[in-house]
Amino acid sequence: MQNKTLFGFGLQWLTKVLIVTVGMVSGEYFKPFNVSYDHRALIIDGQRRMLISAGIHYPRATPEMWPDLIGKSKEGGADVIQTYVFWSGHEPVRGQYNFQGRYDLVKFVKLVGETGLYLHLRIGPYVCAEWNFGGFPVWLRDIPGIVFRTDNEPFKEEMKRFVKKIVDVMRDESLFSWQGGPIIMLQIENEYGNIESSYGQKGKEYVKWAANMAVGLGAGVPWVMCRQTDAPENIIDACNGYYCDGFKPNSNKKPVLWTENWDGWYTTWGGRLPHRPVEDLAFAVARFYQRGGSFQNYYMFFGGTNFGRTSGGPNYVTSYDYDAPIDEYGLLSQPKWGHLKDLHAAIKLCEPALVSAESAQYITLGSMQEAHVYRGGNTSICSAFLANIDEHKTSTVQFLGRSYTLPPWSVSILPDCKNAVFNTAKVGAQTSIKLVDFEPMSSSKSSSPEHLMIRTELPLVSESWMTLKEPIGAWGDDTFTVQGLLEHLNVTKDQSDYLWYITRVYVSDEDIAYWKENAVTPSLKIDSMRDVVRIFINEQLIGSERGHWVKVVQDVELKQGYNDVMLLSQTVGLQNYGAFLEKDGAGFKGQITLTGLKNGDVDLTHSTWTYQVGLKGEFQKLYANDDDESLSWTNLTHDEVPSVLSWYKTHFDSPGGKDPVVVDMSSMGKGQAWVNGHHIGRYWTLVAPKDGCQENCNYRGAYNSGKCQTNCGKPTQIWYHVPRSWLQPSDNLLVVFEETGGSPFEVSVKTVSVEAVCAHVSEDYYPPVKTWSQSSYINGKLFTDQRKPVMELQCEDGYTIASIEFASYGTPQGSCQSFSTGNCHAPTSSSILSKACEGRNRCKIEVSNSVFGDPCPRTVKTLAVKARCKPSLSSSSWYTGLSEI
Ligand SMILES: *[C@@H]1O[C@H](CO)[C@@H](O)[C@H](O)[C@H]1NC(C)=O
Ligand SMILES: *[C@@H]1O[C@H](CO)[C@@H](O)[C@H](O)[C@H]1NC(C)=O
Ligand SMILES: *[C@@H]1O[C@H](CO)[C@@H](O)[C@H](O)[C@H]1NC(C)=O
Ligand SMILES: *[C@@H]1O[C@H](CO)[C@@H](O)[C@H](O)[C@H]1NC(C)=O
């Protein structure tokens, strides 16, 4: 632990190594320090800092994944980890706190400290976060007289109790900076400015109350509010969005903080997959520091997974990948991660100048080109940012007597006001191709061993599935019958997605005759419904509808006599955004009517309805009680017709190795799945619209979440992450609840790995120097002496470069999937690369004539490489392997 802490500081610009290692007492990760701020930056232990923060939400990963994610954030150049606090997970039942497993917040904060990073803890406790009910426990809505997020006594009492609880836990564990812990900053509320006007004067009072309540808890570090232009003097108002350059806090005593830089976006069931190009993201970040920003957090640096029923919505998918630099499974998403790492290195080189200048000197370089120059009191310290905000044209500008070429929509960073070490639009980082490996899904008892090594495009299936039917309608002792329609959440308390509404209608001979004579079909009309309803008549599924407060009209076939109308109402993630969440509710609104009867419509709204919360299988915990013989599972045969509302189970062996594991549910409809009792989330094969995707994504110009989408015409999500720590070597229990009737025989277990890495680096690309020291910087000689155009390749931890599949120094064409040589090609390319890289986890090579010879003088050459990765025999954890760079 001590070594890691020491190393952590080594990577940061401020070399406080001595302070850290000497006299470290147990539980202290830093020498205690205070955090304050001025108009320019946060002041950490007396020094202004330019900080890069990485958003990671602890419950969206497992504790076993946390060290790797934090380590990869640090290697990517982060100084700070930022997370929300998830009230619904920490207090599932009022007064009963949970800090275990994925909710072990103390452990998470300690890991951040051990890694030598700071922490920004956003308590909220309203967090939005695309999390179920915005992070509020659903019991909160049952507190008499409560109105959320306003000047309302019952709400304020609950909010204060929870926020105080978190602050107390952190203080008791000595996790604040002044105690030697990593927490440097907190947050109260979240994006309240967006909805404040809905609450009138009471909203304004609430903001003041929340600020004073938070500060009054004595946490001893600054608090922020995100998007709160009327934040009181004792709270920093911070920006969120795709761009925050030019943001001004509401006082000139506060620094410019960007709590959420949206580096991607979330996805709904049936939606496309959004991507934010890294060139634009880097542009936004560089512009932010260029124009006076001092703290920027990637929302998200790792997005992860909405396990269980934690995803918000309505209708947000189980994956929360977010197109983040670290993907849902914990693998680097390249070139995003690598390009940002280079950007962060460049910004760190500017830190001495950025923190010593009170403000930037602004210089116009053209109609859409500008420079911001930061000089210290000591004029030998000077850093500059040159921006070309023209979306279309490259521009050559003159700056302090030198000429610089700026691609469209880009920023060049000049840590010494002379040498451009980084341009946001020139990506030198590697890209990677992820492949999914199919694994046979069979238990150790019946698998044929040769299958285990096969890589195939065909799903490998388990032959031994068992099935159990979920009852249609009421099944339990706790059903009840009342007159009228109850609101869904009032009944379920969100203990389950599912609620049965059951009533009975009488159809006379005359009705039947009337329908025949007039060729009329009766129909069931629901005025308004969310999120999904499945309509059963006499236990037969006759239709389903989905949407957010939509009208439903469903033709029904009724028999003479009594007919059972059974509506299976479902939520798919509770609302997480907007004013008056407590009133939002779910299920049905308005009237439910049966139309087309002889004597007119029948209003069922005030009929007698029987209510059944949840599924029998959920109640019986089918997903955990594998050995319960009283459950009547039967073997599933191939000729059985897939049936609605069915449970399925099978067993499978873990795929070998360490690669992330997913279950492919593409053959199924909608439902939920569990592995060894862990709820891996809701699944749904809703397909994204066919159109609206872009073949080529142009990074130039302002980004929005609709700009660069993929996955058109395909199901939004088919792979569901099963963290390795939830698996045992063999005989893992997979339980699936399927609503509509998919085929479990095609469900398969797969691994995700980075099979190939590519790089495409120009001989005029100079990555920022990684081993930089302050003194050599002030000498101002480092760039010319030491910097060389370098290509770096790296396989994931535990992998080595097995072979070079393509290499060309010259004018190669195409991209990673399809490189080809151009007119100019150095014939030695492949052999030089093979020698430098094969058998290694990572390799570096200078991109220049001195290495490859000059295949075409007076032409700017590039080196394109594609290398295949394969698992190495020995593998070390991510951050012990770092010291070489
Ligand atoms: C932090 O500030 C407090 C209050 O000003 C002071 O008492 C304390 O000594 C400071 N701690 C450190 C580590 O500087
Ligand atoms: C500026 O800083 C450098 C390096 O620390 C030092 O050598 C030089 O004397 C300083 N100049 C002034 C005017 O303070
Ligand atoms: C839900 O229950 C509460 C209290 O039991 C009641 O005040 C409220 O009106 C109910 N909501 C709906 C929409 O029925
Ligand atoms: C179910 O299948 C298993 C093998 O997968 C077999 O041992 C068992 O006898 C079968 N049970 C029935 C009732 O067919």
TrEMBL record:
One of its GO terms (molecular function) is carbohydrate binding. Its main location: secreted. InterPro entries: BetaGal_gal-bd, Galactose-bd-like_sf, GH, GHD, Gly_Hdrlase_35_cat, Glyco_hydro_35_CS, Glycoside_Hdrlase_35, Lectin_gal-bd_dom. One of its GO terms (biological process) is plant-type cell wall modification. Keywords: Apoplast, Glycoprotein, Glycosidase, Hydrolase, Lectin, Secreted, Signal. It catalyses: Hydrolysis of terminal non-reducing beta-D-galactose residues in beta-D-galactosides. It is found in: Secreted, Extracellular space, Apoplast. One of its GO terms (cellular component) is vacuole. Residues 785-870 form the SUEL-type lectin domain. Its EC number is 3.2.1.23. It holds the Pfam family SUEL_Lectin. Belongs to the glycosyl hydrolase 35 family. This is Beta-galactosidase. It comes from Helianthus annuus.
